[in-house]
Amino acid sequence: MEEKIIKDKLLENFLKYVSISSQSNEENKDIPSSKGQLVLAKKLAKELEELGANNIRINEYGVLQAVIEAKGVDEKKAPKIGWVCHLDTVDVGLSPDINPRIEKSYDGTDIVLDSSENIVLSPNEEKSLANYLGDDLIVTDGKSVLGADNKAAIANVITALWYIRENPSIKHGKIYLAFVPDEEIGLRGVRKIDFDNFDVDFAYTIDCCGLGELVYETFNAASGNLKIKGLSAHPMSSKNKLVNPIMIAHDFISMLDRSKMPEHTEGREGYIWITDIKSDVINCEVKFNIRDHDKKKFLNKKAYLMKITDLLSERYNKAKIEIEIEDTYANILDSVNEDNYLAIEKLKKAFEKLAIRPKIIPMRGGTDGSYLSTRNILTPNYFTGAHNFHSNKEFIPMDSFYKSFLVTLELMSI
Ligand SMILES: [Zn+2]
């Protein structure tokens, strides 16, 4: 099939999915946190039906799952592969509605996204633009993100399924699909996959940026809350009575290593990040995140926080000090084993075959795969082709988008 026809289909699908506003809403504790995500899930369910998928189901959390049966191969011998895409776009204070436009054969100059607000995507600022001369770029109107994160992935997978259907000679194993809500607000949706019906050997997400990016190493992550209950007294007669929880919080924070905070770390350096403090004269809460690629260092960080909490409890024995730490996701790399290593191998081979140079990145964050790896489903992550996720300067070059599609097709077919 001609490249042009595939690109048109990719574009058509992408524009269709971004036209459905599906920003997630951190304030809403329901899953899905916004109606638009369910609208999109329903639309996709219908398309999957037309594409011949089986077991199509949207569960009570708005997770859409489906299966494509194996074709032309011994089902027992072919790996069962899953794809996980997220339905939400991120809320970074921009419009939930996305109105993209296409900058045809990019000429290397400034791209004016919004002339009234003077929002410009400039090659002076965005150096990667120089790589895309002559390519068609999908850009925003400056008022929202583009939503290639993660609708480029959805378009990618749906287009691959369409391609497989149009080309019956393609053999493939059993394909599992999960479209999950609320990835952007703490990987909430992926936890609600019906895992009894997601019987994969391994899975993939397509949820990072420029051409060639490949991620199978993410942070181990936990978040926590330190709760301090002090004692109040009128300051006229508070000597030896008043216990100020804010001063205890101050001690707690001052016992942290300033050189191991997000503003002083990069690459594989982990950190503890104080994210919130709320207090009155009696109750204080300090929220924090713990991140480290290295499992041992991650555990040490947790242990250290427990230790200083004990120490403070001793020092301020009239106060009540409690710490809660909860794991949120784990490093994908730690779920690699002999049986599932094929997931990474297949990906590297696909890149090689398509002459795409892999850029392997230890991600300073997590993907849906970081949660899946805690369930022993190895889930590497590869590029959509887009740049500037979570920004109104997000854009996707058609050529990279197409290459991302080719990787998916290569991974699916045998
Ligand atoms: Zn994403």
Molecular structure report:
- It catalyses: Release of the N-terminal residue from a tripeptide.
- Zn(2+) 2 binds at residues 149, 184, 390.
- Its EC number is 3.4.11.4.
- Zn(2+) 1 binds at residues 86, 149, 207.
- It is a single chain.
- The chain has 414 residues and is of the alpha+beta class.
- The chain has eight helices and 17 strands.
- The site of zinc ion has 5 residues, from helix 3.
Layout: helices, strands, pairs:
Elements: H1 3-18, H2 35-50, E1 54-58, E2 64-68, E3 81-86, E4 101-103, E5 111-114, E6 119-121, E7 137-139, H3 148-166, E8 175-180, E9 202-208, E10 213-217, E11 220-229, H4 245-254, E12 271-279, E13 283-292, H5 295-315, E14 320-329, H6 342-353, E15 359-362, H7 368-374, E16 381-383, E17 396-397, H8 398-412
Parallel strand pairs: 3-8, 3-9, 9-16, 10-15
Antiparallel strand pairs: 1-2, 2-8, 4-7, 5-6, 7-17, 10-16, 11-13, 11-14, 12-13
Helix pairs in contact: 1-3, 1-8, 3-8
The structure holds zinc ion.
Residues 86, 149-150, 183, 207 line the site of zinc ion (ZN).
Name the features.
eight-stranded mixed sheet, EC 3.4.11.4, aminopeptidase, Peptidase T, tripeptide aminopeptidase activity, 2 domains, metalloprotease, globular, 28% helix, binds zinc ion, alpha+beta, 414 residues, four-stranded antiparallel sheet
What small-molecule ligands were found?
zinc ion
Overall spatial form? globular
Q: Note the beta-strand portion.
A: 15-25%
Strand order, largest beta sheet? 1-2-8-3-9-16-10-15
| Backbone structural class | alpha+beta
Number of helical elements: 8
Number of strands: 17
Mean pLDDT: 96
Tally of domains: 2
Kindly state the percentage of residues in helix: 25-40%
Intertermini distance: 18 Å
